[in-house]
């Protein structure tokens, strides 16, 4: 007796929200590894297994609307990288933030470069505003970890300068074939923030208070302790300048 064939699974029509989420996910994957101008709606439709008119149905503004929607989604994911519970030594929290950030950069290499370097035909005032919002959100998170909810101009500038340096280092890291190892780059970026904080503290009272509070919460075996032991032999050569 011949057994009955197993019926094929019934086709399930996606809801409007499910289809939009699917198309957005496909677009994010494409934009992550190719510059925006190199991705067409046909590419998105083919990767999603749908027709080009269907993509237009959900993104009537065409590729620009789809790119901006994908960018907002990526920006939200990037902002989440900076969210860290205020528990434990600040620089160890920062290390975890940077681990997530560099993992994001690693997973969105080409798209990340195109996004931050600008010059794309898809770049508009809206896309620039989305990127700037991520920078502001990152700066606010760093200031919260420093325990300064209402920073003055010097401290705010210092943090924003560090954010810009992190972006630049990330682009160079991608250009250099992701060398050095992400963990080494992360440690250097933490040291960079501590160095900026220390230098600014020398001439800004609010920053000096933030630096003192940070040092009080650090551990000897943590990033600041390691940095201090490495720097002392270097700065000792400047004793004749005191």
TrEMBL record:
Pfam families linked to this entry: TetR_C_46, TetR_N
Residues covered by the HTH tetR-type domain: 17-77
Keyword DNA-binding included in the entry's annotation: yes
InterPro entries xrefs: DesT_TetR_C, Homeodomain-like_sf, HTH-type_TetR-like_transc_reg, HTH_TetR
SUPFAM superfamilies: Homeodomain-like (SSF46689)
Organism: Streptomyces gobitricini
DNA-binding region ranges: 40-59
Protein name as catalogued: TetR/AcrR family transcriptional regulator
Keywords from the named record: DNA-binding, Transcription, Transcription regulation
């Amino acid at each position: 007796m011949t057994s009955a064939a197993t019926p094929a699974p019934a086709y399930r029509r996606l809801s409007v929200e499910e289809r939009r989420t699917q198309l957005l996910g496909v677009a994010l994957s494409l934009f992550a590894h190719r510059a925006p101008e190199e991705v067409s709606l046909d590419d998105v439709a083919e990767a999603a297994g749908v027709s080009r008119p269907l993509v237009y149905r959900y993104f009537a503004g065409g590729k620009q609307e789809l790119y901006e929607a994908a960018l907002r989604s990526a920006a939200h994911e990037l902002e989440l990288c900076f969210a860290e519970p205020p528990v434990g030594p600040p620089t160890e929290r920062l290390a975890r933030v940077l681990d997530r950030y560099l993992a994001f950069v690693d997973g969105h290499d080409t798209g990340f470069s195109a996004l931050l370097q600008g010059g794309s035909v898809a770049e508009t005032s809206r896309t620039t505003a989305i990127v700037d919002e991520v920078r502001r959100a990152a700066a606010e998170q760093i200031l919260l970890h420093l325990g300064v909810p209402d920073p003055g101009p010097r401290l705010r500038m210092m943090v924003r300068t560090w954010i810009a340096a992190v972006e630049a280092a990330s682009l160079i890291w991608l250009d250099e074939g992701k060398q050095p190892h992400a963990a080494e780059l992360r440690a250097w970026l933490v040291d960079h923030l501590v160095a900026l904080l220390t230098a600014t503290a020398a001439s800004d009272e609010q920053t000096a208070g933030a630096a003192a509070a940070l040092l009080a919460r650090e551990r000897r075996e943590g990033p600041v302790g390691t940095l201090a032991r490495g720097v002392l032999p270097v700065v000792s050569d400047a004793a004749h300048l005191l």
